[in-house]
């Protein structure tokens, strides 16, 4: 995976060059901006050139056909010519909250051991939907306490790679019931929380669970006959 956010989620600046820039958006030789996917929002920030022109990036998406990462801005924003050297500056405050909450959701899936039917996050809150029957009673305080214990224990978080064939032989690692990773790929990215969790994921994460900080369970909702939604937020 060549994109820099896969190599190092903590990079906040990157020098690169423009491949093309048109009405569809800005495509660069490389990027630190994470594109919308896996329930995690696309990154925002700025792209600037040596002349001082700064372009505000309002969203980042991956083109479905070409698989290129496209940086979006206002329709009337200036455009860079192909080959222009530019510097990317990530909205790190927003991205880091995404990283903290995304890792917290992985821990939540360890606290509530049930199939995950959906999930999403923003910089303000995050949620998972679980496939739970009526016999399940979720206690808000117990979930919050268990989740914060895992955070305080400060487990290392690391990236591993496996093949689709190998993952097909370990389907218990796939917690999401609604969307499964493409098992025909030669490489699939896994996120390991040491001694706690291992599951496929393409998102950005913190390096240790202690970085998440204290979280609160904002609410628990019934979403249909079996789905229960748990919404969490960072205490800060």
From TrEMBL:
Q: Which UniProt keywords apply?
A: Metal-binding, Zinc
Q: Which cofactor does it need?
A: Zn(2+)
UniProt xrefs under Pfam families: tRNA-synt_2c, tRNA_SAD
Superkingdom as given in the UniProt entry: Bacteria
InterPro entries, per the entry: Ala-tRNA-synth_IIc_core (IPR018165), Ala-tRNA-synth_IIc_N (IPR018164), Alanyl-tRNA_Editing_Enzymes (IPR051335), Thr/Ala-tRNA-synth_IIc_edit (IPR018163), Transl_B-barrel_sf (IPR009000), tRNA_SAD (IPR012947)
The species this protein belongs to is Crenobacter oryzisoli
Residue ranges of domain Alanyl-transfer RNA synthetases family profile in the record: 1-236
Record-given protein name: Alanine--tRNA ligase
- Localization: Cytoplasm
């Amino acid at each position: 995976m060549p994109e820099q956010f896969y190599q190092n989620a903590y990079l906040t600046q990157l020098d690169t060059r423009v491949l093309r820039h048109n009405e569809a958006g800005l495509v660069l030789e490389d990027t630190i901006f994470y594109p919308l996917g896996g329930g995690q929002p696309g990154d925002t920030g700025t792209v600037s050139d040596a002349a001082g022109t700064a372009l505000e990036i309002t969203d980042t998406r991956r083109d479905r056909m070409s698989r290129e990462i496209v940086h979006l801005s206002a329709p009337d924003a200036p455009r860079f010519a192909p080959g222009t050297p530019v510097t990317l500056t990530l909205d790190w405050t927003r991205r880091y909250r995404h990283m903290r909450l995304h890792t917290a959701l992985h821990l939540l899936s360890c606290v509530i051991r049930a199939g995950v039917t959906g999930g999403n996050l923003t910089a303000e809150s995050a949620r998972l939907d679980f496939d739970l029957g009526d016999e399940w009673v979720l206690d808000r305080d117990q979930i919050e306490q268990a989740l914060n214990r895992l955070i305080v224990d400060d487990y290392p978080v690391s990236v591993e790679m496996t093949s689709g064939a190998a993952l097909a032989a370990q389907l218990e690692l796939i917690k999401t019931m609604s969307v499964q990773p493409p098992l025909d790929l030669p490489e699939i990215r896994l996120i390991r929380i040491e001694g706690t969790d291992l599951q496929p994921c393409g998102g950005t994460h913190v390096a240790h669970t202690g970085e998440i900080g204290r979280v609160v369970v904002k609410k628990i909702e019934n979403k249909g006959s079996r789905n229960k939604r748990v919404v969490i937020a960072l205490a800060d």
